[in-house]
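From the shared-data thread, chain only:
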Amino acid sequence: MPEIEVTLNIPADRLQAYYRDGVQTVLALASDGRRVQFPVASLRPFVSHGGVSGCFVLPTDSRNKLIEIRRKSF
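Structure, as tokens:
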């Protein structure tokens, strides 16, 4: 199962604007330089008062569809 690693730092005000404006997807730069797009709703478990920040792993299926998102443990 291929995995994509991304580091996110989305402040709370920007995240609120995503929801308010009906933004459906997040576009991020993976650690290997690829641009990846995934549903903003998949970040809900990681939202704090400050927004969303940290390093995340995105396992994908053979068609590069997101299976889940999880915080990377160091």
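The chain has a mean pLDDT of 93.
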